[in-house]
Amino acid sequence: MSIECHSRFSLASVIQWVVRWTVCGLLLCTCMSATAADRLVVYTVNYPLAYFAERIGGEHVEVHFPAPSGVDPAFWMPDAETVARYQRADLILLNGAGYAKWVERVSLPQRKLVNTSSPFRDDYITSSDDVTHQHGPGGEHAHAGTAFTTWLDFSQAARQAGQVAMAMKKLRPAHAGVFAENYQRLQRDLLQLDARMLEITSGKPDLPLLASHPVYQYLARRYGLNLRAVTWEPGSYPDASAWQVFKSLQAVHPAHWMLWEDAPVDKTRESLLGSAVNIVVFKPCMNRPAQGDFMTVMQANIKAMAEPFNVPH
Amino acid sequence: MMDSLYIAWRYVTWNRGKTLVLIASITLVAFLPLALQALLNESERQLRTRALDTPLLLGAAGSALDLVMNSLYFDDEVPARIDMRAPAVIDDSGLAYPVPLYVRFMARGAPVVGTTLDYFEFRGLQLAQGRQFALLGEALIGAEVASRLGMGVGDSLVSSPDNLFDIAGVYPLKMTVAGVLADSHSPDDRAVFVDVKTAWVIEGLGHGHQDLAKTEDSSVILRQEEGTVTANAKLVQYTEITPENIDSFHFHGSAAGYPLTALLVVPEDDKAAARLRGRFIDDARYQLVRPDTVIDGLMESIFRIKQVIDAVIVIVAIATLLTIVLVFALSLRIRRDELETIFRIGCSRMTTARLLAAEILIIVVASATLCGVLLWLLHVNSAALVQGLILR
Q1: ipTM of the complex as predicted
Q2: Which chain A positions have a beta carbon within 8 Å of B117's beta carbon?
Q3: B346 C-beta neighbours (distance < 10 Å), count
Q4: Whole-model pTM?
Q5: Is residue A310 in some structural domain?
Q6: Is residue A101, in this structure, part of any structural domain at all?
Q7: B138 to A139: CB separation less than 8 angstroms, yes or no
């Protein structure tokens, strides 16, 4: 009798257990699929915008930045399949200011495009440098036209983030509160970077600086840097003509610090040190960093900038 | 009665020539006004359906009819151009979204429609094969174009020269078919769709060529100054956009000045449409039209012309009927001896009249049958006929 009771009890428990977990599983699947369907699919043309979108959208967005690591997204050309993925997105975030020339050569749905720098399009900097050069697998290119590293002016970056938040709110009004809250946090962080940069650079406004690449125009304008650029690559040693240009420039612009997009090769570093020029690595962070995120990279950049301006970290 | 019909049948088959002429005359007189009405009804249906599906059209001030016919039915009468500032005007209003259209060029006899991907979503067009155009130089072709030219995904088609006698004009562009649209029974079936930027490349506003800074052929360089290299006409421009040369393609001038023939304006609701229309009432540069209103005006004109044609047909019908009466009257005179013989062998005058009535009945029934068959054929093919003959 007791055995029979025990087996009946056991069978009922098993059935109860199966039903309970099946129901839970079904509910979980429904919730997950609803969340996935509700998620805003966002594609961006550079990493800073992807970071802003991730920070603002949180769990309500699915952010994609498909440029492979190691390429300069500004001069990258996606293949047709990647363009098709951009076409299927809910929102495509453009940097504007002529960034990502490939956008001109592909077909993207206009209604999904948001030019995040449009609020300050009248303040774009026109660049005159048109030296053709090559780095990475992106092919040869020149920086003539409009300067595009707009986010290196952190006040502009905050405005770009504002455009991202507005676009998300328009598409998913149900999550407007979350987007607004996340944007405020991001804005606060970006404006802190801005304030710190202003604080560092305000002490020596005339300090001559060099840049290895013409990508710091907005940084220089916002923070009053006395900056002149050459067109060198961190991964290769400059040739004799490049050194000639450098020497001529140094003669009229006696800088002892040079901003680099990434740490240069040792030989370049030694030669520069021989010319009494120190290295400051200030990464524009166009592509997804191997470690950390946009904020940690920018904090490291600002920390590095403290040295030439002789400001304690 | 059957006897009368039998004898009448023998008579009309014996006089085949006269019978066929009579049948053809009666058939034509009956068929022409009915066919005209059927074609006009179908035209009206097609024109109005397309027009009603298009809430508003923005174009340069000028002929509203040219604007509508070019933008909706890809008519080859190109309206005055607007430029890329117009989409910004609509965008900035916050009341509608614009879909640009640049319908100016042809490829293998089909209109090339330069637009954006929003067009396909707006019209609800589906792909039968392939994918959307993604890269500069890719095209989508309508179902009819695909069937007429026997083309599919991966094939190429070349844009027609703008002017046959302008040998120094824009280069034809070889476009790759990325996809084929499913049949939509609309003018979209007869068109080739490209990104509006590809249309600008066809126009010559954008192009790709060898790098002047690296060319070893000095004969292509006209002038070289500090920072500027000017090429002469010998410089080879690419006539096909490939993954290898796409990076060399670029546009000259301000993008705001690039041309469009029209904007499809899709308002948020009726209120937004009304507000938007109000803003363009006194605009000297643009006209914002409701295509259905323009098409109603066109149909009124067509129906006025139809009334004249109807009057002509009535007169022709009366003349034809009189001729038929004359033919029968003369026939009776020719057949006097034959009818006298019928009377003498014992048939009454009524029987003679029945014989003649049966002959007329056979001819009328044959004409009605033929007319019915022709009308049925017309009905079956009316959509294609209207698209091919009227809305070309």
Answers
A1: 0.74
A2: 87, 107-110
A3: 7
A4: 0.78
A5: no
A6: yes
A7: no
